[in-house]
């Protein structure tokens, strides 16, 4: 578990770094969210392509690869829309509905055992998400897109575990990037900004950090149960909060701090838990 947790911590640091570059592109340079998402997919696919050329291409006929890729496409596009108007830490907190969805799907669809301790901690983390999002009350504009992104991402995480023992990590990474590029690039063509050195650098940083983070995430899900790894997605909050403060000067309010503490605390506690005896409740008996 600790090997997977270490990989997740590194992966969850790369992903907010890529999204910070994306937020700079949209909020400072006026780049369209669809351009940011499409460039991220296209550049990542081109970087990974040389590593999959020796693999057989027949595996790409598996519809599950493409379904998983579409889940990631929806998640990335949605979170870029949210980042254009909402603070980085708030977006990631709302985005963290994803681990709860991933855990439920893993139990229902992958027949993974239900660990009551991790389920309680996941519920605590979700309570923290509600404190940040505050549905029906005042919250940063655009956070509904962050919740939508988290929903897509939760399904994507479970699909990563679903295919983790069947498909090599490099094939999973390339398939999600290539399909997402095919879907988004046509819509991004009218929104390509005037390319300055700073925009080019930020575009590359966004793509490379996202690719590295998702590649490591696939590796972690190959070696550990999705329901056990899901709370560790909360590690993104550390990097998101620090980067949001250092780059954008965004400091969360008191309720958001309380929500962040609940989210982060539940993720760390879940990582520290030793494997326990699963309950008798499984998806095929529910």
Please indicate the percent range of residues in DSSP E strands (runs of 2 or more): under 5%
Largest sheet: none
Strand-and-helix sequence, N→C?
HHHHHHHHHHHH
Low-confidence stretches: 277-286
- Percent in helix: over 70%
- Give the N-terminus to C-terminus distance in angstroms: 27 Å
Number of domains: 1
**Mean pLDDT metric:** 80
- Helix/strand-derived category reads mainly alpha
Q: Identify the overall geometry.
A: globular
Report Rg.
18 Å
Number of distinct helices? 12
Number of strands: 0
Describe this protein's structure.
- It is a single chain.
- The chain has twelve helices and no strands.
- The protein is mostly helical and 286 residues long.
- The two termini are 27 Å apart.
- 53% of the residues are buried.
List the helices and strands and how they pair.
Layout: H1 2-27, H2 33-48, H3 63-83, H4 88-95, H5 98-109, H6 116-133, H7 143-164, H8 169-188, H9 197-223, H10 226-229, H11 236-248, H12 254-272
Helix pairs in contact: 1-9, 1-11, 2-3, 2-8, 2-9, 3-7, 3-8, 4-6, 4-7, 4-11, 5-7, 6-12, 7-9, 8-9
């Amino acid at each position: 578990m600790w090997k997977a947790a270490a990989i997740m911590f590194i992966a969850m640091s790369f992903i907010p770094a890529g999204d910070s570059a994306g937020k700079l592109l949209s909020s400072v340079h006026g780049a369209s969210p669809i351009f940011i998402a499409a460039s991220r997919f296209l550049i990542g696919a081109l970087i990974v392509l040389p590593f999959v050329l020796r693999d057989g291409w027949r595996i790409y006929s598996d519809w599950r690869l493409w379904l998983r890729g579409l889940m990631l496409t929806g998640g990335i596009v949605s979170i870029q829309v949210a980042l254009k108007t909402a603070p980085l830490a708030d977006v990631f907190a709302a985005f963290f509905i994803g681990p709860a969805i991933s855990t439920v799907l893993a139990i229902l669809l992958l027949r993974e055992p239900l660990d009551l301790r991790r389920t309680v901690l996941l519920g605590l983390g979700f309570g923290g998400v509600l404190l940040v999002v505050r549905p029906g009350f005042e919250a940063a504009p655009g956070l509904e897109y962050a919740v939508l992104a988290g929903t897509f991402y939760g399904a994507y995480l479970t699909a990563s575990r679903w295919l983790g023992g069947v498909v090599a990590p490099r094939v999973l990474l390339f398939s999600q990037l290539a399909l997402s590029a095919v879907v988004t690039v046509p819509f991004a063509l009218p929104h390509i900004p005037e390319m300055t050195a700073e925009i080019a650098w930020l575009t590359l940083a966004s793509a490379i950090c996202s690719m590295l983070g998702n590649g490591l995430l696939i590796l972690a899900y190959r070696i550990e149960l999705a329901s056990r790894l899901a709370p560790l997605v909360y590690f993104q909050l550390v990097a998101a909060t620090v980067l949001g403060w250092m780059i954008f000067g965004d400091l969360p309010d008191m309720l958001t701090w309380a929500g962040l503490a609940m989210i982060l605390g539940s993720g760390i506690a879940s990582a520290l838990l030793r494997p326990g005896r699963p309950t008798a409740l499984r998806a095929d008996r529910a």
